[in-house]
Amino acid sequence: MTARPARRKRIIRVRSVEHQLAEANLARANGELANLVELARRLETLRSDLAMAKGAVAGRALNTIGELAMRLDLAQENLAAPLCNASARRDQMGALAQRAMAKEESAVRLYEKSRKSAEAEQERRNDANRPHRPRVGMRLRLIEGGAA
To answer: Which residues, including other chains, have CB under 8 Å from residue 106's CB and lie 6 or more apart?
Structure first.
């Protein structure tokens, strides 16, 4: 393998590792977003399940239910910013993963082109190094008694 294809092969390895890291970061960002969405869904479920009992209710219980509802609402409001940030981070990691994949594919194409070029060059050199063999059918024969 000549220097150029070897260099291209090293570049492919680097681009492949970069792509794998980008995909891992994307998966991590997707996981974080999924966790936050699940947490928001659970808060919503808790808030909707917090229903007032029918009939006579003690003042203390009513106060506790109201305070719990207020805390759940506050937690849900405070979760909006991290959800937005996680979504933006996921989009950013997705773009980075796509860019890394494009770079890896480009490196593979360059390697293939370089390898084919090196093979053609090697074939040309091999052809140039072959000893000259005269063609048997084209040799002129002198006929006896012919031109002197």
So the answer is: 15
The burial of 120, by beta-carbon neighbours within 10 Å (0-12 exposed, 13-18 middle, 19 or more buried), is given as: exposed
CB count within 10 Å of CB 73 equals 12
Structure confidence by residue, pLDDT tens digits, 4-48: 888 999 999 999 999 999 999 999 999 999 999 999 999 999 988
Q: How many CB atoms lie within 10 A of CB 46?
A: 14
Distance CA 78, CA 94 (A): 25
Q: How far is CA 93 from the centre of its chain?
A: 9
DSSP one-letter code for 1: -
Q: Can you give the length of the chain in residues?
A: 148
Structural domains of the chain in order of their starting residue, each with its CATH number: 3-129 (1.10.287)
